Amino acid sequence: MTAHPRGFASDNNSGAHPEILAAIAAANEGHVVAYGDDDYTAAARGCFRQHFGETAEPYMVFNGTGANVLALEALARPYEAVICPATAHLNVDECGAPERIAGVKLLAVETADGKLTSDLAAERITRVGDQHASQPRVVSISQATELGTVYTPDEISALAELAHEHEMVLHVDGARLANAAAALDVPLRALTTDAGVDVFSFGGTKNGLLVGDAVVFLRPGLAQDFPFIRKQSMQLASKMRFLATQFEALLGGDLWHRNASHANAMAHRLADAISGIDRVQLAYPVQANGVFATLPGEAIQRLGDALPASLPFYVWDEVAGTIRLMCTWDTTEDDVDGLVAALAAAV
Ligand SMILES: Cc1ncc(COP(=O)(O)O)c(C=O)c1O
Hints:
347 residues; alpha/beta; Aspartate Aminotransferase, domain 2; Aspartate Aminotransferase, domain 1; 2 domains; seven-stranded mixed sheet; 13 helices; 11 strands; binds pyridoxal-5'-phosphate
């Protein structure tokens, strides 16, 4: 087996945290009722409720795309529309699954930094009641965003207010919700339950799980069809205990926070060092675990060749010369310092 040096391409490129693997091994004992009717699932649901409140209805699924798309399917009918930033994962990286599986129209909004504002969203709430137009039903934001920026609780509340004023709902793609909460030093519920969010996707895989994300309903009544939607879309795990035990390990103690704040700290270390390198600029404020750096085109190739990982980073914008550098729970200070040295040499 060849070695697998760490890189910065994705927080999905890291493995599973040892405490998650230990939880899976511990759950691998005896027979347990399948499909979620088991005590591991009950315990995981309890952990979600500790964080998000007693009315939270969590449903575990296999991945983040499934969480987003099935949440939208539960929230919107096929003649309804979802307002989201143009950079949203569901708009650019889900292969049209929201359109095909949830059947919704996406109303993509250009933003400066991946963040939708209530003013920008309000501009897209038009032609309500007009039978010729898709009807706006959901506002969807990503927290943290795909550009590494973070919404404050007040910004989320403003979007929730706007949505509710128009009888719409607010969905959050929380693939990196833990990173955002750790970055702002607030509890997870400050960015969801307490900010008026109706439904969110909760990322596990990017924060140390082997596999598993979740859809969490916060507004009573919205979840009622979800068990059928999840099964019909093939996201119901038969051996649910293995998803559940991972969430219990993540959320039952502080693992979610340790992993996320470590990844964020590595991103800040990287951003601080990059600020001192001539001819390299940060493309967006570094607020969570993603760093976007713009450098001369010819240096990108040199940097890629100099780094040990097989895919050390993604080129985010070829024209601008921007690369995406993601930090994760197992990124080390040495990894960051090695990258910085290679970057300085490449430019
Ligand atoms: C913001 C965001 N949402 C959702 C996902 C989807 O995750 P998955 O690849 O598990 O479907 C990703 C993955 O990169 C993401 O970055």
